[in-house]
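Hi support team,

I'm opening this ticket because the web form for multi-chain structure prediction keeps timing out on my end. I have pasted the exact lines I submitted so you can reproduce it. The total is 918 residues across two entries, so I didn't expect it to be a heavy job. Is there a limit I'm missing, or should I split the entries? Thanks in advance, R.K.
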Amino acid sequence: MEQFTPTQIDALSTLVSTDRFSTGQSNRELHTKDISPHRGRLPAGIIWPVSTEEVSAILGYTYGQGIPVTPWGAGTSTEGNPLPVEGGLVMDMTRMDRILAIRPQDLQADVQPGVFRKTLNANAGRSGLFFPPDPGADATIGGMIANNASGVQTIRYGATRDYVMRLTVVLPDGRVIPTGGKAHKSSSGYDLTRLFVGSEGTLGVVTEATLKLAGIPVAHLAATVVFNTLEAASQTVATLMGSGLSPAALELLTPELIGLMNREKGLGIAEKPSLFCEFHGVSEAALHETAALAEELCRDSGALDFQTGVKERERKDLWRARHEAWETIHRAFPGRETLIVDAAVPISSYPQMVVFSQQQLDAKKAVGFVFGHAGDGNLHVVMVGDPADDGEWASLEEINDSIVHRAVDLGGTCTGEHGIGIGKRRFMQLEHGAGYALMKQIKGLIDPRGLMNPGKMFL
Amino acid sequence: MEQFTPTQIDALSTLVSTDRFSTGQSNRELHTKDISPHRGRLPAGIIWPVSTEEVSAILGYTYGQGIPVTPWGAGTSTEGNPLPVEGGLVMDMTRMDRILAIRPQDLQADVQPGVFRKTLNANAGRSGLFFPPDPGADATIGGMIANNASGVQTIRYGATRDYVMRLTVVLPDGRVIPTGGKAHKSSSGYDLTRLFVGSEGTLGVVTEATLKLAGIPVAHLAATVVFNTLEAASQTVATLMGSGLSPAALELLTPELIGLMNREKGLGIAEKPSLFCEFHGVSEAALHETAALAEELCRDSGALDFQTGVKERERKDLWRARHEAWETIHRAFPGRETLIVDAAVPISSYPQMVVFSQQQLDAKKAVGFVFGHAGDGNLHVVMVGDPADDGEWASLEEINDSIVHRAVDLGGTCTGEHGIGIGKRRFMQLEHGAGYALMKQIKGLIDPRGLMNPGKMFL
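Hello R.K., no limit was hit. The queue was backed up. Here is the completed structure from your submission:
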């Protein structure tokens, strides 16, 4: 659906103020592309609601009309999750961007979905608090909820799902549903909150959320650990995770990626299989003790070097470089797109997955970089190619397929943090078996006309 | 349904070995009472499956016959959650009690639902690991999953919901569904796992689970903190929770309960409003630093005394006494039943809830003890009475009502950890509003004949 009827345009125009509904070409084109290689179909129009009531009125109308609706956040998704693949209406949530309350005593914040993660953290920081899930990109909270976003600090702090306590959701037909509550724990009824977290906008639109916050750690300590082989590096991950030292981040980097980061970012670090670690604690003294224990474990596991003398400035550079790994790869290959593997496996299987993935790249002579949130067993392989070159792209998809199949065989998942979106729908049956049919039933129950973010998650 | 037809008896008898299906009176009576004041109706029979296949065959049969089925674990529930209120078949899961695997490198265990919590911990302990959710009672893992059980260490370690990674569930019609996976994180599809956790057996029967485990902390430190007033004690809770010191337990006790524990257990501690705290750490040194910070915060908040010199033996006695608070109260009033308030609120509202609850007891001259998992905002009021004395019991229910209404007004819940069961169904509409209708729709989708654990959660 690339065009509304004049009646539909009139009707939608009455639901929001005039500057918040557009059928202009440029606005529509801006909403057909996220950072993935996927492309949406041109939507018929964009609407920017500012309240739950507006979202409810809009969905009440579109549902009756059979108009597909795709919610939009920051557009930082890597799997085409917010792209309007059937056109229709894009509901851009970025004007619902108010932080309604930060309640330090409760360690909670009430926010609208269009609040950006970094904005929330800047505000929460004034109370010594932060919202820990950190996907790198400055996503909106709504987008993070939709995809259950996570990132480098998930091993210690958990994913977005672990931080959402309460939601206001507008269902596809316009009904407004509250879920969850503000108490830290509850055993009351079905967990609707976590049904909506990670549902990628296919079950409704989140219009308000209560989030848990955490205290900003008093002390940080970063460490870089260098190994001779990828196996040794990845095997050390399981040792560290079982140690009770509770690292705040534990990232694996291959020499190839470090080489690229050295060239592009001037990092100047050894081009060896490496772990980037971070520890958080209540004091410097406690952290030094933690670091001493970590070093002992790493050296016992064959570490060549363990550096903790990383200064604040260097610590930030290191993590910025890690956060920007995707951008760095993207920039190093202008005019190419990236296909990102996001498989996750139990920690003990991580070493074989790392080795297997590197072998797949080598066997197909593909351009790709293996790294990941090792402490979570979450493996990224960022592969570079041209989607217009059918042969080359198909070869990258084959690598993705073989890695995902291996991950699922090991009890893992096709996506640790990016969501299913468009590109991973073909793995749903493989990964979930009979559970996939139940997911479809739930989708059918809540969105019987199939209008909410169509073309995502389900084939 | 208190009797099966001869045909039904024959059919059910063929589905399991002869010693695992019973229509004997004593077995049936044993399954009509948990530790709550509620009573089930006499079931027509009890069945003890030993495999997913058997559960599937049984449910496939009962579903076709319209036989209500109620799953049963350890019978330690406090809200009648496993009582067969419509009779029918009780499915006793305690013979599915195998620990299938403990995988230390993955920090995971694969278990059947009839494994007892303490058995799992004894086994996991050999690998230096434990399953943190601790409701006090030696519940089965299946029961803990059904009720999203938690307890004193939830503030640091989370509830059962946070530890369930993967399930095998048999739906009411016998379909077998896998949910989740063994990877530490996933953004793949709807979170079916957490839909089933806390569903109290109303959506199907869990026949296998993969659980996260945590490393047993190297060092423990217990502290008792004494205050002049309940307000000062409960206000200190929020301060401690916001401090980043991450206590492993933070319990509030009133002078009345301590007095009872002193008399019944010979604890010999001050009968003042008190906090019982526990801290876990990587070393004794780190813990002493933590304790020093905690003491400073507590004294600034008006603590009269802060004792950390609690020895291992005393620490265990203290926590045993706290764990057995309910049994102690029960035993002190022979022949009476207890009605347990389980409301939870955001931490900042905890002080007013504590004071309000004590006032309610005083105003109605009810026998009751206020305590709770203060760090979670989870308040227990254990009230003592005789359900046969309509006037007295109604008065206790009124107290429960007024506390729950206040909790919900404050954004909280009627049940932090016990589940809805029978006694809290009347609060579902109040607490969940339009979300309650969606829960009913989901129940209708998965159990259209309403046969799974009928009479629970929904009115």
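A quick check on our side: Chain A has a mean pLDDT of 94. Let us know if the file doesn't open in your viewer.
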